[in-house]
Amino acid sequence: MAEHCNCAHEHINSEQMENANVDDLIELAELFKVFADSTRIQIMHVLMKEELSVSDIAEKLDMNGSAISHQLRILKQAKLIKNRRAGKNIFYSLSDAHVLTIMHQGLEHILE
Q1: 79 phi, psi to nearest 5 deg
Q2: Residue 32 CA to chain centroid, in angstroms?
Q3: What distance, in Å, lies between the first and last C-alpha atoms of the chain?
Q4: Can you say whether residue 37 is alpha, beta or left, with left for phi > 0 and alpha for psi between -120 and 50 degrees?
Q5: Cα dist from 25 to 10, 22, 31, 32, whole Å
Q6: 43-67: buried (b, 16+ CB within 10 Å) or exposed (e) per residue?
Q7: Are 80 and 36 in contact (CB under 8 A)?
Q8: pLDDT tens digits for 87-103?
Q9: Distance between CA 45 and CA 102 in Å, rounded?
Q10: How many CB atoms lie within 10 A of CB 92?
Q11: Which residues contact 14 (CB under 8 A, 6 or more apart)?
Q12: Distance CA 8, CA 98 (A)
């Protein structure tokens, strides 16, 4: 996984994973809850390809902007997406390569 990541922090090794405490596991469960919504998965999928505004995402997913904004707020709170302001426009993208890795590995798992 490390070879695909351009992040500045260290990756968790097997020993650290085995020594995760209950609070870490609860936080991990909360992260996976965010992935449990098909609309949020679709939003992350379109953001894999390019940075988009709320209206762009709504158009691509044939949904209203209000519903998209609600889901974006949840994704941002979970640190799965980030935003960039350009004048009056706000553009959203995936936070980092880890999000892409989670999506890829999940898809690989279900396609086995």
Answers
A1: 60, 30
A2: 10
A3: 19
A4: beta
A5: 19, 5, 10, 11
A6: bbeebeeeebbbebbbebbeeeeee
A7: no
A8: 999 999 999 999 999 99
A9: 12
A10: 23
A11: none
A12: 12
Give the phi and the psi of residue 63 in degrees, each rounded to 5: -130, 170
Q: Where are the beta strands (DSSP E) in the chain?
A: 81-86, 89-94
Whole-prediction pTM value? 0.82
> Both tokens of residue 84?
């960039």
Residue 48 and residue 30: Cα distance in Å, rounded?
A: 22
| Spatial contact of 1 and 101, defined as CB atoms under 8 Å apart | yes
Nearest to 94 by CA among 83, 111, 81, 106: 81
Give the single-character DSSP code of 101.
H
Where is average pLDDT lowest: 3-12, 36-45, 66-75, 102-111? 3-12
